[in-house]
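Batch manifest, entry 17 of 40.
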Amino acid sequence: MHSMTGFGRAELEKDGHRISAEIASLNSRFLELSFRLPRFLYGLESVLREFLTPRLERGKVNVNVRWEEKDRPAWAFDPSQVKAFLDWLKVAKKKFKLKGEPKLEDLLYLPWWVKEDLGEAPQGALELVQEVLTKAINELNRARIEEGRRLAEDFKNRLNLISREVAEIEKEIPAHKEAYRQRLETRIKELLGEGKYDSVRVEQEVALMAERSDVTEEIVRLKSHIEGFGAALSVGEPVGKRLGFFLQEMGREVNTLGSKALAATVARRVIAVKEELEKLREQVQNVE
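Output type: structure tokens
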């Protein structure tokens, strides 16, 4: 099981080129790819999208590629722009009666200190970018697998809590039925007096109540969904949507259990199960 959250970074130096790639992934229902590329690689975006799509199932993925040439200056300086700016400052200083002189550090924030950019993609650029992206994806996947392992452990712990609560509910139901029969009998005696009620009618009423409040099928289905959820955690393929389906079905069965609850203790256990399901639902959104 993989998480959709992760980060991978890789660098490559070859033939005088230095390329780095960063891939950051967040949870999303579908695969959403966004790129930040040097201008001369814009034309390769569609090819890179096709390259990455089969390697990423789901997630909001941001891809950032940097390219540097080892034998080219990192920054360019335009003296004519600096001179034009200083001339403009002199005019503005005189016109608005400003004080002070420009300093060198003030110039560092201005746009003529721009990074060199290649005019066109060098030969073999696509292959180099794909190579560094492959390394970054491997790092991303390692991070996602590790996060997925931690999520799976948390899921198993919460499933165990849910299973224990369901087992307790199952054990308590027969006692609650008998308690209901006794309460009903006592209430009728209070209203009609001892010996003035129909015991057969009371038993019929108890049987009808037992039929209406029977949760055997719900518990059987809930246990089945819990088992299916647990089994999916060890499947070596994307299971996020499958886990979401199991949680939806578990929630439906638990809601029915709550509506049929005969005692406050069962209702409290149902609430505890719902709390764990909600926590699982939040975490499953991060699963690929």
